[in-house]
Amino acid sequence: MITRPLLRHTVYMILIYIVVAVYIAAVNVYSAMLVRAQRSDEGEDDGAKKGDGKLILAALMGGATGIYVSMFIMRYRLKNLLFMVLMPVLAVLNVYFFFVAFRSGFTFFIIK
Q1: How many domains does the chain divide into?
Q2: 79-96 burial by CB neighbour count: b if 16+ within 10 A, else e?
Q3: 82 in a domain, yes or no?
Q4: 3-state secondary structure 52-79
Q5: Residue at 109 is within a domain
Q6: pLDDT band at residue 84 under the 50/70/90 scheme
Q7: Residue 66 CA from chain centroid, whole number
């Protein structure tokens, strides 16, 4: 028989896994939509690149994979060396961080 504290801890861990998985999906979808929005606004500006900070921030938050894939799908800024080097590096770091977090069971969260 499973004791009550152990059952409660298991339920909390499952909820944390679900919340983090939804966060990863949401950030990547948002990043892809951000690339699409910037690509559609590209012709309206006078050549100024205004949204690079938003893309880099979204990539740091976990959306680098979504940005990198959508850059190729939409053929957006493929000649920009910063994005072509930074996004794969951040994508690998994001995947590694989420892998370690899932593997460790989110031990950096304290649940009492």
Answers
A1: 1
A2: eeeebeebbeebbeebee
A3: yes
A4: HHHHHHHHHHHHHHHHHHHHHHHCCCCC
A5: no
A6: very high
A7: 7
**pLDDT single digits (tens) 41-71:** 877 655 556 778 999 999 999 999 999 999 9
CA distance 50 to 60: 18
What's the pLDDT score for residue 48? 53
Q: How far is CA 9 from CA 4, 14, 107, in A?
A: 9, 9, 12
| Beta-carbon contacts of residue 67 (< 8 Å; ≥ 6 apart) | 31, 32, 34, 35, 55, 58, 59, 83, 87
DSSP character at residue 30: H
C-alpha 73/C-alpha 93 separation (Å) is 22
- Show the domain range for 16: 4-40+50-104
pTM greater than 0.90 = no
User: Of 87, 106, 109, 110, whose CA–CA distance to 98 is shortest?
Assistant: 106
Residue 9: CB partners within 8 Å, gap ≥ 6? Answer: 111
